[in-house]
């Protein structure tokens, strides 16, 4: 700053990844709730690179500024600290509603808040969409199989705050569609992993990789015969964008059907990290689903989508990410 001339000279100009330049009629204003989170920030990257204008709202409970730090200051990007439980008014063309803690320890930390986030957050976003005629992406997840399966949730169990929150979010979404003609999309997202996951979010992928990198025993809850199917985050982002831009209103499963028992998965990670860590068994959590694997025929037929990242390759990338974070002293 030069006090004589009152001029500010910027010594450093930031460089950004190159974004596409879109003609005005193709350039959309897109709101991403939870856009500083693990999945949200990857979606933001993709939408920014495509040349859209992106507005992120996040309360930073599980999201981190760092996840989108590389876009701060970019003319197409805006980051707002806001909790979706409170109303939010803005003019946008599309809304991806991803705000909600998704790992059991995080969403069970404050179950009331988790239900409020799903229910009030979804009401607020649908209300916004109704006012501005935007499209909405809800973020529901159902236990196994095809979209036609109605699920099986213990309404007073420890997972209910998340599961029932998602279920009522779907009910709300279709009520707004039928009653107020809001243009909705619903993705049912299955277990997803990749860089920018929280190292300490307590989920199986981050726990096992961190334990393997630190040379600790891998903790299997229960007998380890329960199954999960894991998708790499880039596949999910592809699916979300395809769904948003398809003319299809019913729920669509997005997940990788490649199913592992948790014990097999522990072994896969021990191999990928190339360590001699052992496995130890801890008690199974209450209401832990025994099997989960998406039927993705609908996504294949309607969106022409299927996962492209083999689980092993995605795990390799994620291990490298956690390794870099550990070396940099960030975790
Ligand atoms: N799990 C485990 N060890 C861990 C963390 C999780 O065996 O350190 C198990 C957990 O009991 C569940 C599966 O791995 O059966 C997936 O758990 P996660 O918390 O990742 O997500 P969920 O799919 O249950 O929501």
TrEMBL record:
Pathway assigned to this chain's UniProt record: Nucleotide-sugar biosynthesis; UDP-alpha-D-xylose biosynthesis; UDP-alpha-D-xylose from UDP-alpha-D-glucuronate: step 1/1
Family listed: Belongs to the NAD(P)-dependent epimerase/dehydratase family. UDP-glucuronic acid decarboxylase subfamily.
Membrane association type: Single-pass type II membrane protein
GO BP term (any one): D-xylose metabolic process
Keyword Lyase carried by entry: yes
Coiled-coil regions listed in the entry: none
Keywords from the UniProt entry: Cytoplasm, Decarboxylase, Golgi apparatus, Lyase, Membrane, NAD, Signal-anchor, Transmembrane, Transmembrane helix
UniProt GO MF annotations: NAD+ binding; UDP-glucuronate decarboxylase activity
Taxonomic lineage from the root: Eukaryota, Fungi, Fungi incertae sedis, Mucoromycota, Glomeromycotina
Name of the protein described by the UniProt record: UDP-glucuronate decarboxylase
Catalysed reactions listed for this entry: UDP-alpha-D-glucuronate + H(+) = UDP-alpha-D-xylose + CO2
GO cellular component: Golgi cisterna membrane
The protein's required cofactors: NAD(+)
EC number(s) from the headed UniProt entry: 4.1.1.35
Top-level taxon in the UniProt lineage: Eukaryota
Organism: Cetraspora pellucida
Domain NAD(P)-binding: 31-317
Major subcellular location class: cytoplasm
Subcellular location, record wording: Cytoplasm; Golgi apparatus, Golgi stack membrane
């Amino acid at each position: 700053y030069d006090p004589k001339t009152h001029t500010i000279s910027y010594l450093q100009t930031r460089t950004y990844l190159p974004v596409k330049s879109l003609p005005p009629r193709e350039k959309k204003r897109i709101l991403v709730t939870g856009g500083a989170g693990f999945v949200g920030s990857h979606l933001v990257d993709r939408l920014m690179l495509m040349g859209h204008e992106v507005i992120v709202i996040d309360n930073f409970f599980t999201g981190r500024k760092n996840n989108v730090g590389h876009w701060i200051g970019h003319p197409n990007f805006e980051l707002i600290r806001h909790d979706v439980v409170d109303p939010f008014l803005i003019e946008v063309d599309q809304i991806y509603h991803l705000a909600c803690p998704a790992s059991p320890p995080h969403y069970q930390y404050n179950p009331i808040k988790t239900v409020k986030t799903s229910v009030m957050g979804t009401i607020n976003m649908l209300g916004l969409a109704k006012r501005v005629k935007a499209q909405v992406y809800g973020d529901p997840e159902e236990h196994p199989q095809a979209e036609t399966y109605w699920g099986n949730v213990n309404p007073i169990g420890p997972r209910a705050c998340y599961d029932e929150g998602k279920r009522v979010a779907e009910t709300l979404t279709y009520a707004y569609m039928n009653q107020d003609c809001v243009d909705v999309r619903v993705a049912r997202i299955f277990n997803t992993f990749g860089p920018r996951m929280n190292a300490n979010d307590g989920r199986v992928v981050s726990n096992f990789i961190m334990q393997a990198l630190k040379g600790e025993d891998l903790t299997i809850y229960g007998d380890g015969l329960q199954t999960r199917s894991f998708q790499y985050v880039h596949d999910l982002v592809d699916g979300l964008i395809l769904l948003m831009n398809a003319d299809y209103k019913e729920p669509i499963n997005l997940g990788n059907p490649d199913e592992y028992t948790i014990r097999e998965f522990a072994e896969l990670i021990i191999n990928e990290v190339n360590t001699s860590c052992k496995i130890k068994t801890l008690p199974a959590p209450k209401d832990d689903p025994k099997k989960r694997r998406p039927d993705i025929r609908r996504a294949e037929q309607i969106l022409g989508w299927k996962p492209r990242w083999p689980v092993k390759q995605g795990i390799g990338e994620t291990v490298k990410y956690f390794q870099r974070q550990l070396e940099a002293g960030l975790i």
